[in-house]
C-alpha cells in the first residue's frame, strides 16, 4: 500500500483519536501559541508525525493550536530543521524555540 494511505488510516484510527482528545483535554482546547479558544481547535505534533513514528501517540508530543497558528507553525517547520519546533505548551504570545517532546514534562491526567 502507498505510504500516504497508511498514514491516513493511522490518523483515522481509534488510538489516534484518543491521543487527539487527550491533547485537547490537557490544553483545555486553547491554542497554546496565541491563547485563543477556537471553535475548531487543531492538534499538532511538535515533532513530525512522519519522521518520529515512535512519538505519534505520545501526548507530550501534541499541542493544541488554532488554524492560524497551526499554519504559522507548519510554515516554520518547512523552512527550518524539524528538530527545533517553534512552539512550547504554556508559552503564550512569546514563543520561539522549544526542547524536544521528550523534554516536556507535562502532567497528563486520564
CA(first)-CA(last) distance: 34 Å
Largest sheet: 2 strands, antiparallel
State the order of secondary-structure elements, H for helix, E for strand: HHEEH
Helix content: 25-40%
Structural class, by secondary structure, is mainly alpha
Strand order of the largest sheet: 1-2
Radius of gyration: 13 Å
- Using DSSP, what is the number of strands? 2
**Hey, roughly how much beta strand do the residues contain?**
5-15%
* 3D shape: globular
Number of helices: 3
Mean pLDDT over the residues: 76
Low-confidence stretches: 89-110
Structural summary, described in words:
The chain is mostly helical. It has helices at residues 3-11, 14-26, 67-79; strands at residues 42-45, 62-65. It has a two-stranded antiparallel sheet with strand order 1-2. The model is unreliable at 89-110 (pLDDT under 50).
Topology:
Layout: H1 3-11, H2 14-26, E1 42-45, E2 62-65, H3 67-79
Antiparallel strand pairs: 1-2
Briefly summarize what is shown.
The chain has 110 residues and is mainly alpha-helical. It is 32% helix and 7% strand. The protein has helices at 3-11, 14-26, 67-79, and strands at residues 42-45, 62-65.
